[in-house]
Amino acid sequence: MNPVRKRRLYLALFLLLAVSGTTAALMVALEQNINMFFPPADVVAGVAPTETPIRAGGMVLEGSVVRDPGSLGVEFVLTDRAGAEFTVAFEGILPDLFREGQGIIVQGELKEDGLFAAREVLAKHDENYMPPELMDIAGHQNQGADS
Amino acid sequence: MSRLSLFVPLGVFVLILVVGWFGFSLDDRRQMPSALIDKPFPEFAAPSLYDQARTVTRADILGRPTLVNVWATWCTTCKAEHAELMRIAERTDVQLVGVNYKDDVAKAQRWLADFGDPYDMVVVDPDGVLGVELGVTGAPETFLLDGEGKILYKRVADVNRRIWRDELAPRLARLGIVEKDLPEQGGR
Amino acid sequence: MNMLPEFGQISLACAACLALAAAVTGLGGNGARGELLRRSTVSMVVGQFVFSTVAFAILVTAFVNDDFSVEYVANNSNSLLPWYYKISAAWGGHEGSFLLWIVIMTLWMVAVVVRRQNYPQRFANRVLGILSLLNLGFLSFAFFTSNPFTRLIPMTPADGADLNPLLQDFGLIVHPPLLYVGYVGLAVPFAFAVAALLENRLDAAWSRWSRPWTNVAWAALTLGIALGSWWAYYELGWGGWWFWDPVENASFMPWLAATALIHSLAVTEKRGTFKSWTLLLAIAAFSLSLLGAFIVRSGVLTSVHAFAVDPERGSYILAFLALVVGGSLTLYALRGGGVRAAVGYQLMSREFFMLINNVILVVSLAVVLWGTLAPIGYEVLTGSRISIGVPFFNMFFVPLMLALAAAVSLVPVLNWKRTRWAAIKPAFAYALPLAVVGGGLTLYFTEPRLVMVALALMLAAWIVVTHANDIWKRVRARSSMPLSYAGMTIAHLGFAMSVIGVAVTSTQSIEADRRMAPGDQTELGTAAVQFVGMQQVRGPNYVADQGNFIVTPAGGSPYSLKPEKRRYLARGSIMTEAAINPGFMSDTYISLGEPLGDGAWAVRLHFKPLVRWVWLGCLLMALGGVMAVADKRYRRLRARQDAQVREVHESAAGQVST
Questions:
Q1: Which of A108, B56, C327, C361 could potentially form a cystine with C260 if both were Cys, beta carbons 3.0 to 4.6 Å apart?
Q2: Domain for residue A146, yes or no?
């Protein structure tokens, strides 16, 4: 083979490997790392898988927030205000906009006993979750107090 | 083959564009659906804006189709919305109930005196207690109730002409409330 | 009544008219007798700049004068706001920030006008025409969907709704302008590429002309992204500095493409290969910054944000995107071929390593693009919502960046075309063992001990050793070092520095969330932290609970940190203000969570080693990029412009006749 052909062959092989490798890896990684979102009704009805990282959302039920006096542990109930409710346990610092009655999203795992063990709590309109280019966000003028 | 491969980037881009377009048209579905739809409007008791001693309850607003509008003087979008509310009040028989949200009573009274009062009654919710009850995330928000107090529709953000035409007017028409044919006054 | 905002609007309209006219003369006025048209393109470009700047100045004036009859001012300012934030609030919202985008666009166009003598007349005219066409798109977007001058009359509010407290910060005064300089600056190499396609002159010349523009835009983008990351770190109260959020990805994708472009432009200029690929990258880099604008401003990817987005804006940007990117890619598909170069190179050559660099960067780009768009695609296909976690991105970026680091480390020893083994040998025989020892040592000192971290540090050390050796050899031989070469070296060292920073701070940080009451003491790594107490403080437009913490590092003198929980008066919104003791080697970071009753607070304590290296590395990279532009090579261009331009004219004429 002449050198140019040889180089082309290497190049084509390299590109083929890179492309197929990346595609395969992207698919596998996506499979493992997506977090499905479930509303309270799905969590209660058993649609949501247990012991798998998922996201769930709902409103924090008024009067349901119970803090552990000795640690940062906290438990609260998420509701869709249509009868579906489930309890979330979280250990850590809640976002600034976490409030009773507020819509929030929790990320974590649903345990077999129906308790949702949250690793992360995100409040809607949450400043903590704002990306750095927040000023670009269209129409987001009155965040926090109003919409 | 090399000529065709030059079209690959274009193909990739078209694919992205299609995804972007569909994703964009999904946008409306992304908002958390209000769990209150088709549920009765919650019980409440709140003081009236003009007479703090008087308490308005859920029973007081029942009887005819009603728009409950959550507003505040600190909210600029509410000002943009105000003209549309004035128009609705003038041209229809729908009952308009204002919920003055996390606001100052004196400021709110002055606001209505200055810009006009579209509401049949206004209640005050200085601490946002009623707002929590309603699952309000901010102002403005507007609820459409039928005569029995069932919530038919909820609008987060301003009620504008488009929302009126596409969402509110058809629902109100089903409840027997139609827009009166007044001469358009300096329409927009 | 103050009529200034109306003048602002008229100004915008004038700029749009000029943009339209300049697009026509720029793209059409290329006939033999087009001299007059070409001159008018130039003056109309300057006119766009003047009118856009006037409009922007009027908007700033409205902010400074608290003119709340302007809706945008009412939504984004407040009379209590300090004056400097009143000015920066002008780009604190969608409409104003887009006006700033336009002003920066026209600034770039004026810069092209200033340097137009370096390019053939027709070519420069085309470039200005393409830029004007883009600017017309921007201006009409502003005018029809995002007018910052809309009035709230007669219902003028007494006071404004205030600037979002998160934006009341120095970092956010500087961050958007810098980022836009980068985003919009990529329009220049884009215009050069499209002009080259239109003129059918795909020689090495256009790549030489593009290089300085690409470098400056890339440097600004680098700084903008680093600044945004730094701001997220100190302002969000989480201690994180990169979240793989869609909006961050929107700025990262054009950066990756531009980085690849810088490298492939070098190959195209020096060796005349990769031509078609370089064109594609130039188109892609700017297209991705437009895609970023779409993602950020249309609300299509809002993660957990839910806010009313005007559907008109999204459709407009999408249509604009389809036209600009679709059009240029079609042009590329039709004209971009037939530039096959017959230049050969071997495996151990700079060309081949540039190719590796480009493949890695483009794969990284594909990963980010995939991770950003997959949630939309998934929802379209299945109807259920997903989010893609940070592990997805990390899983790819760790090996990809390690491979890139390995490639970078060999750059100083590689020659164009082919490299003799004798030249490469020291990099493997001396530098690599040194780096391995360095990496091995870190394995001993770090906790937890991670192979990936050791590998990252080893490769970073390899980069430093080979580049330092290169500098040393040049100094010893008293051979000159062109600024562009020095710039490259500095940028590569900056990359190594960022790699070290990222590897160490993301694995070796200590993070603790604690419940603390006044008087409580806790430990953070080797330091002791004592919570002294809380007090109320007042700022110009907020009140705050301020905590007082005394930190005593092991063997160091104690200092105090005062994190705050602020409540901004105009909106009643709550903000966490972290307190940071910054250091070259490590940061100590404390932020307040929520009060837990009985005077106790949830407290977040972080010890972050080498976190600053992440941004300092970016600073070095940007510095390198700018240094390369200052190279004599590009300045000399002007001195010999006449000869060169004449030569180019001749070759262009030759091409037309064939």
A1: C361
A2: no
Which A residues 99-118 touch C at CB under 8 Å?
Answer: 105
- Give pLDDT tens digits for C378-432: 777 776 667 787 888 888 899 999 999 999 998 888 888 777 877 888 888 888 8
The verdict on residue A140 lying in a domain is: no
The string over A55-71, giving b where at least 16 C-beta atoms fall within 10 Å of a residue's C-beta and e elsewhere, is: bbbbbbbeeebebeeee
Residues A42 and A22 in one domain: no
Residues paired with residue A56 on neighbouring β-strands, in sequence order = A38, A106
State the pLDDT at residue C401: 94
Angle between helices C275-298 and C170-185 (to 10 degrees): 140
pLDDT tens across B25-69, in order?
654 444 444 556 778 888 888 899 988 888 888 888 888 899 999
**DSSP secondary-structure letter at A67?**
E
More confident residue, C19 or B25: C19
Q: pLDDT value at position B137?
A: 63
Across the interface, do B102 and A125 touch by the CB < 8 Å criterion?
no
The residue segments making up the domain with residue A20 are: 1-34
Domain count, chain A: 2
Measured between CA atoms, how close is C586 to chain A, in angstroms? 23
B14 vs A142, residue with greater confidence: B14
Residues A89 and A101 in one domain: yes
Mutation choice for C interface testing from A65, A105, A136 by most C CBs within 10 A:
A136
Q: Which two tokens stand for residue C157?
A: 């509010």
- Is C388's CB within 8 Å of A134's CB? no
- Phi-psi category of residue C446: left, alpha or beta, with phi > 0 → left and psi -120 to 50 → alpha: beta
Same domain membership, residue A73 and residue A22? no
| Closest chain A residue by Cα to residue C302 | A137
- Residues of chain B with Cβ-Cβ distance to A81 below 8 Å are 35-36, 39, 135
Residue recorded with tokens 């009655």: A101
Q: Is residue A10 part of a domain?
A: yes
Instruction: Indicate whether A124 and A61 sit together in one domain.
Output: yes
Q: Please tell me the distance from the alpha carbon of residue C68 to that of residue C60, in angstroms, as a whole number.
A: 12
The reply to whether A84 and A14 lie within a common domain is: no
Domain ranges of chain C: 513-611
A82 touches chain C (CB under 8 A): no
Task: Give B-chain residues touching C334 at CB under 8 angstroms.
Answer: 6
Beta carbon pairs, A and B, within 8 Å = 52
Largest pairwise CA distance in chain C: 88
Q: Judge whether A136 lies within some domain.
A: no
From chain A residues 52-111, the ones with a CB under 8 A of any chain B CB are 57, 59, 62, 79-82, 100-103
List CB contacts (< 8 A) between A42 and chain B: none
